[in-house]
Design goal:
5 helices; elongated; 156 residues; Tscrpt_reg_AsnC/Lrp_C; DNA-binding; Arc Repressor Mutant, subunit A; Lrp/AsnC family transcriptional regulator; 4 strands; four-stranded antiparallel β-sheet; Alpha-Beta Plaits; alpha+beta; sequence-specific DNA binding
Length: 156
């Protein structure tokens, strides 16, 4: 999809505040509501806008410990990877799972839990029991230096 200046402006504004009404969005980008809504719908249908979500505060929910977990697998087969990926998708504390290269690990997980006891339970009772997991290395986040979800919009 070719993005023009209106599309890019819509994307920037909606990434900042996904609750903007169509009227507010139209006013901010300088279009009338009907063409603005058509553009938003076209961006949604093209898959550029993948969805809308509420951003929750982990600490307000009592989830104060974030861990980055590097996972090594015993076999590098599609079946082994599919099994691992299905298992981690089912663990609510896992926020992100990345298949990586350039490390001694195969995956990097980002997890959030209440405290170290909850982390121990997550790691020992669930993650290390996934078939194929042979190595685990954990790092704990001290502070988030950059924490954003907005993507750079091409053409900016």
């Amino acid at each position: 999809m070719q993005l023009d200046r209106y599309d890019r402006h819509i994307l920037r504004l909606l990434q900042d505040d996904g609750r903007l009404s169509n009227q507010e969005l139209a006013d901010r980008i300088g279009l009338s509501p009907s063409p603005c809504l058509r553009r938003v719908r076209a961006l949604e249908e093209a898959g550029v806008i993948a969805g809308y979500r509420a951003m929750l505060d982990a600490k307000a929910l009592g989830l104060s410990l974030m861990a980055l977990i590097h996972i090594s697998m015993d076999q590098h087969t599609p079946e082994r990877f599919e099994g691992f990926e299905a298992a981690v998708r089912a663990i609510p504390e896992i926020l992100e799972c990345l298949l990586i290269t350039g490390q001694s690990a195969d995956y990097q997980l980002k997890a959030v839990v209440r405290d170290m006891d909850a982390y121990q339970e997550l790691l020992l009772d669930r993650v290390t029991r996934i078939p194929g997991v042979t190595g685990v290395h954990s790092s704990f986040v001290l502070r988030r230096v950059v924490d954003k979800t907005a993507l750079p919009v091409p053409g900016d």
